Inverse folding.
């Protein structure tokens, strides 16, 4: 999974690079259009278009019967039952192309989330860096507590452009260390974390552009790497479960309204797909 994510990160970084300095809605419109065209091509190749068209005609015929015999209750009930049956047939016929599309869409949405789901930090802005230790961290030789403390020895180092403002705050009940950090200058940075005798890094983006941002770096695992592909996972065997950075949530401005990017992506993709279905000769 790590190799797949590394490849997809590179591909999406290149594809999204022309839209970095533009308003988020511009890139999202293009991405939604491409996704809609891809959906139409897959739907056309993997579905039984003849049967789908026949089912839609039968549904329209039942609707016409309801309007035609609107004073005949038994006929109306019969037509409604037929509509239900035909709708189930439509869903069954649509299931195959949906199964073909769901896997690539999971990977696409996972990548886009980290381009559109978070806003970049700005100079002067404070943010919190948290380190979550695994249960049983005390048994790790690298993180053994000192003789005078029941907390792990930890240090967070920031490059020029970032400032670590506080010493680590240890929350024993959550096995969590936390620092407050301030962004001083625009740029791409890497925080250096030392816990015990082990060293880790965490990327930081101080930029207004639409770019890939990683709010959390998790331990290895299929689900973690599938849902959080923006950065390589922590090394195997690490006593750290996660390193989290507090990016603000991102919104896409539409006529002054902040809209969740995923909602907008689905709405735009569906609209483009329906608008272009005739041009591609696809029955939806």
């Amino acid at each position: 999974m790590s190799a797949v994510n590394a490849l997809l990160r590179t591909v999406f970084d290149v594809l999204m690079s022309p839209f970095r300095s533009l308003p988020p809605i511009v890139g999202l419109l293009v991405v939604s259009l491409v996704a809609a065209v891809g959906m139409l091509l897959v739907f056309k190749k993997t579905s039984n278009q003849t049967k789908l068209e026949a089912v839609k005609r039968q549904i329209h015929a039942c609707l016409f019967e309801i309007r035609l015999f609107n004073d005949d209750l038994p006929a109306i009930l019969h037509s409604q039952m037929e509509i239900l049956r035909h709708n189930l047939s439509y869903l069954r016929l649509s299931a195959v192309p949906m199964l073909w599309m769901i896997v690539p869409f999971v990977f696409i949405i996972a990548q886009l989330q980290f381009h559109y789901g978070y806003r970049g930090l700005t100079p002067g802005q404070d943010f919190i860096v948290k380190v979550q230790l695994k249960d049983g961290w005390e048994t790790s030789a690298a993180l053994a507590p000192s003789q005078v403390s029941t907390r792990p020895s930890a240090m967070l180092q920031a490059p020029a452009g970032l400032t670590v403002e506080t010493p680590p705050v240890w929350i024993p009940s959550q096995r969590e260390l936390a620092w407050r950090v301030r962004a001083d200058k625009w740029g791409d940075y890497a925080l250096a974390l030392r816990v015990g005798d082990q060293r880790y890094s965490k990327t930081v983006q101080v930029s207004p552009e639409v770019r890939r941002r990683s709010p959390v770096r998790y331990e290895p695992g299929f689900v973690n790497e599938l849902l959080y592909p923006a950065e390589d996972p922590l090394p195997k065997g690490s006593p750290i479960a996660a390193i989290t950075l507090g990016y603000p949530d991102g919104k896409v401005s539409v006529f002054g309204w902040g809209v969740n990017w995923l909602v907008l992506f689905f709405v735009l993709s569906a609209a483009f797909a329906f608008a272009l279905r005739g041009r591609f000769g696809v029955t939806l």
Q: What stands out?
A: The helical segments are 2-16, 24-46, 49-68, 73-116, 222-227, 261-276. The chain has a mean pLDDT of 89. The longest helix spans residues 73-116.
